[in-house]
Write the structure tokens for this entry.
Amino acid sequence: MKNLLNNKFVLIAIALVVGLTLGWLIKPSSAPIMEADEHEHVESIAGIPITYTCSMHPQIRQNEPGNCPICGMTLIPLDNDNSDADPMALTMSPTAMQLAGVQSMVVGNADANKSIRLNGKIQEDERQNYTQSAHVPGRIEDLSVNFTGEYVKKGQVLGQIYSPELATAQEELFQAQKIKDTQPALFNAAKEKLKNWKLTDSQIAQILATGKVTDQLPILANVSGYVTEKMVNLGDYVNRGEPIYQIADLSKVWVLFDVYESELQWVKKGDLIEFTVQSLPGETFTGKLSYIDPMINPQTRVAKARLEVSNSNLKFKPEMFVSGKVESKGSSKDNSIVVPKTAVMWTGTRSVVYVKNVTDQAVTFKLRDVTLGASLGSEYVITSGLESGEEIAVNGTFSIDAAAQLAGKPSMMSPDGGAAMTGHNHGGTSEVKMQTTSQTSKGSVIVTTKAKNELKPIFDTYFKLKDALTKDDLATAKSSAATMLASVEKVNMSEFEGDAHMEWMKYAKDIKAALVKVKSAKALDEIRKSFQSISDEMLGLAENFKPLSSKIYVQHCPMADSNRGADWLSLEQKVVNPYFGEAMITCGEVTKTIQE
């Protein structure tokens, strides 16, 4: 009985221990479950589910991290738009702006100044050119000055001319002298006849004093200067008034600059110009423009601007090449809004910028149409659409525009906005152009030798395309474009790492888009329009990647693209224009040199 009672107590103790143990195990497991539920509830109320996107392909959006299915880059978180912001504006977080390379500036009134570079030649002053002619008919008996370039002084004897008519006139003078007391008018008429043949009073007096007839007359220089042309030889017969020499006084010369019609508005009479002479290295000269030709040459499409300079030491010689620079101001009386070209996106009919607005809640960008004025090299004058004090995006504008189109906001190609895009673009909606500009700082990407080798075939075919356009060869241009497209598509993207991968993706997309248009082109003008887009991307590619060991010359034609100007690349410094071909083959200048 006693053992049974002890067994009961043991069983009760064991049950109690087991119960306490189970209770302890169950209790801690329930607490985390409640916390997790509570955490999920808080996130749901806050409404912050994270969306991941690709910085290169913003149409890619998914609810979990990973890699981009197009380029393989790591996806980044995308912040949701602020609900309190302008519904027509795009909200961007500081992180998104940094990844897109967005930079902004506050615009203000500024002088519309432009630096104009001019090329020209030194020429003789037309007002200082003279013709030495024969004053009596006869035969050239002697030439004291018998080669061009010789300097002569006024009154110097240039040669002798034999004239039978001169002998006859002297006989008449002697006869009139005998009756001068009774018929003085006849005597004076005989002397005037000799004076009309440019005989001086002293020469006539000497003839009367000697009483002898001379049949040779010295040719005296009418002016001082350099003989630029000898027009007779010894023994030639000449008539009265026939040219013998061309003489130029080079104590003053003209510097004639070529001014393209698109730049005439910036060059004014009285402008100070600084110029250098190719054959006088290290020296800089200045002067004021004294004349601008009112007519444009129909072949070269340029007007002449004239500078007059003193040349007492004969440092300047006709036909020397000169290069000048004019710092000119716009014709507008009021200060203008001037913005970098990278801030402006041009659709062909519209020019737009993105205006930045900063509030306590968010940073937004809103599309704004503007009207462009004159081009100032790397800047535009804005004639309407912006006010002083407003802030605009100057870099990363295409990334902003792409994000705006994907979000259904007003964008460059969709000014009224539209439905937000998600996933891949399978058609029906215009593909947003994502491009990088040549404003990317040099050395911003690290490019391996293998990556550069991948780009060399692209540049080789680009130069073939350029050469075909300079020769107006439609068939070769199309075949070169097709070969270039194949070269772009064959590039091994795995050779591009880090930022280089991102940069190459931007350039490749736009180059391929422009080359595809060439395939369907039926005229050279269509190819040249696409070639301008190709050249812009190739310029940026050359600056950032430097794929060639040889020099690449950046050349610019101010008359291309309807006088807005366009660039292209060349391996030769000599300008051969692909935008006009044989019609204007030498139009343009070298603006930059790119070298590894």
Q: What stands out?
A: Residues 107 and 389 are 6 Å apart (CA to CA). The first helix runs from residue 2 to 46. Residues 449-594 form one domain.
